[in-house]
Amino acid sequence: MEMRSAIVVGGTGLVGSSLVKLLCDSEEYVSVTVIARRKLEFEHPKLIVKIRSFNQLEEKDIEFAHEIYCCLGTTIKKAGSHEEFEKVDVEYPLQIASLAKKCGIMHFIIISAMGANDKSRVYYNRVKGKLEKELIALELQQVSIVRPSLLVGERDEFRLGEKVGEWVLKVMNPMLVGPLRKYRSIEAAQLALAMKVIALYGKKLPVMIYNSAQLAKLEMPEVKEEAPISREELFNWDKFKEEHTPVDEEVVFNREKLQELQVKNDTILDNKILNKE
Fold it and tell me: What pTM did the predictor assign?
């Protein structure tokens, strides 16, 4: 597999920070660029961090990469208003996707939400549905939309509602089977891994949408290594002889036949010379 480069937008959040570490530690990636509003605590030789304001991004900020992972997201409480919430969850991702298209980046991978639907009665789901609809309308080369259920993991901030939901789903998860499996909570680290698997091995279609149950199952394929050849096998001449065509010793080593052939050839040559004279 070719060596890759990636851009992660929003690398300081729950999923983004996990994804950045995963990509930097990955053999498949030689360069990981993070565009964030604040400095990362994490450092790595492969890592390049660009501190930017998302409403002032330009083409020069989006260098070539094999894929962009968009992990932007906030809450209405943190944003302060519906308008500011939609800036972070809709306007900025669409702006970044447009820049990616101009820069020739082939694959845009973005975190949405399980209930995304632009006609939903739930405001949050309606906003995420609007984002997906407008993102697909951009006609990118390839866009992968991941729709996780409730994300669990260690956050920098305390969110009471999510903590309650996390506790409830922790109890309910074993009972959510079949079609209900997609409602199970999912670890942020697993979502990060799933996004990497999608980038490397996902279907190369213009639009792919992955639900939470699918994301929970994704993992890196096992690479089967060939067993090393032992010294005994390497120098086993008996086995070598068995695997090759046997030599016809009568033909190769019958010296009498060889001498007869040489005499016959010499006689023919002498006759030709006498005839010329």
Answer: 0.74
Q: Spot the catalytic one: 87, 101, 124, 183.
A: 124
C-alpha–C-alpha distance, residues 38 and 52, integer Å: 8
The verdict on residue 222 lying in a domain is: no
Domain count, the chain: 2
User: In degrees, to the nearest 5, what angle opens at C-alpha 40 toward C-alphas 51 and 200?
Assistant: 90
Strand bridging mode 47-51 / 207-211 = unpaired
CA distance 14 to 45: 22
Q: What are 36-91's pLDDT values in tens digits?
A: 999 998 999 999 999 999 988 999 999 889 999 999 999 888 899 999 999 999 99
* pLDDT tens-digit readout, 196-244: 999 999 999 999 999 999 999 999 988 766 666 666 666 666 665 555 5
Active site annotation includes 124: yes
Instruction: Examine the domain organization and report whether 268 and 193 are in the same domain.
Output: no
The domain of 265 spans: 231-276
Verify whether residue 128 is a known catalytic residue.
yes
CB atoms within 10 A of CB 70: 26
Q: What share of the chain is helix, strand, coil (3-state, %, to 5)?
A: 50, 15, 35
Selection from 81, 100, 189 nearest residue 144 by Cα = 100
Catalytic option among 21, 128, 130, 182: 128
Whether 206 and 130 map to the same domain: the answer is yes
